[in-house]
Amino acid sequence: GTARSRRTRGVLVVAEVAIAVSVLIGAGLLLRSFNHLMDVDPGFRVDNALTFRVNLPPGRPREELAAFYNRLDQELNSLAGTTGAALISQLPMCGCDSITGVILENKPKPAPGVIQWAGVRAATPGYFATLDIRLKKGRLLEARDTNAEGQTMVAVVDQAMVDTYWPGEEVLGRRFRRLDAYSLVWVTVVGVVENLRHSDLSSEPRPILYMTPSQATAFYMGPEIFGVVRTQGDPKSFSTAVRNAVHAIDPNVPLSEVLPFEDVVNRAIAKNRLGLLLLGILACLALTLTIVGIYGVTAYSVDQRTNEIGLRLALGAQRGRVLLQVVRDTGLLAVLGVVLGVGLAIALTRLADAFILSLLYKVTANDPATYVGVALVLLLVAVGAAYLPGRRATRVNPIVTLRS
What we know:
- With 404 residues, the protein is α+β, with helices and mostly antiparallel strands.
- The chain folds into 2 domains: 3-40 and 270-403, no CATH class; 57-252, no CATH class.
- Helix content is 50%, strand content 16%.
- It is built from 13 helices and 11 strands.
- The chain has helices at 3-38, 62-77, 127-130, 159-165, 213-216, 239-249, 261-268, 270-304, 306-314, 319-351, 353-359, 368-393, 398-403; strands spanning 49-55, 82-88, 99-104, 117-122, 135-138, 153-158, 175-178, 186-193, 208-211, 224-231, 255-260.
- Strand 7 (175-178) and strand 8 (186-193) form a beta hairpin.
- The longest helix has 36 residues, at 3-38.
């Protein structure tokens, strides 16, 4: 073909490789991030567990809230075929949260405008055993932790709260006040538990405090609560039993989001899974088009140069050198495409920096391993796609070429 047509074909190969590289880098980053997410220990068991949400009408007195939750906890723990049950004001991975400021006893006051935050959870005593949350020090919440006259307010805190507010100190017996209290009462730390991933698997553990519903009513407590039932069989088969337990206490209380705990966690990582799926499809499409495009362009180029190749063979050129030249020409174009594709990927990650970072976990947007891996894959693909047309070029009959 003419020099112009060869340049056009070269531009097509470079463009295809560049686009494929940028898309594959995005898919590679998400894949590495997703693999890291799957290796994260959430800090609790999700198998064989049914979860649900109870929404009480707003405006109920605090004492009625506590009484309802305590009775529901008893009903759930008496269900046949279960090994444990508990209530929690915010279920891990449920997409909701509750926080408060805390004032620490015998600690300097924070600077003006600075609030020492902690997540707040009202949990029945069986919560930690039901979710298999490990106790690190002290004791867990107990049924005796009530709001009775003269009863000490107690809390179990996670390791993140210890590391944040009492680093390197003995935390048992430490006291703090909650800024959302109806009265400024001191709360005593009686135990420390392992950290959980509350929002999603990619969020780092943060300070969390747990109190029984009976004592939590001395503070702000919303009218909704989540239940977790550990089952001996398929969690879904216990849905009716759970509904009956709730409605046995109050038939007018709505029950929602009755789901296996595994579904709740899967929903929390749905954004990451969807992003990986979409980019994975685009990456497969881009890679397929690149293979087909390089093969087609190289095959067409070989057809256009049949007479030239035949003449070279007639003059004594080795068939291996002819194959090497065809593959080399395509390889050089692929190298240029890879360089441009890497530059395009870097530019796109900088333009969409916040969005990209929200999808990544323990992987940087400029992860060297991903970039090098994709570059090598595309170069191998380009060489492989050019090999078959190159092999065909070595089979040109020089005698037939000379006669034509």
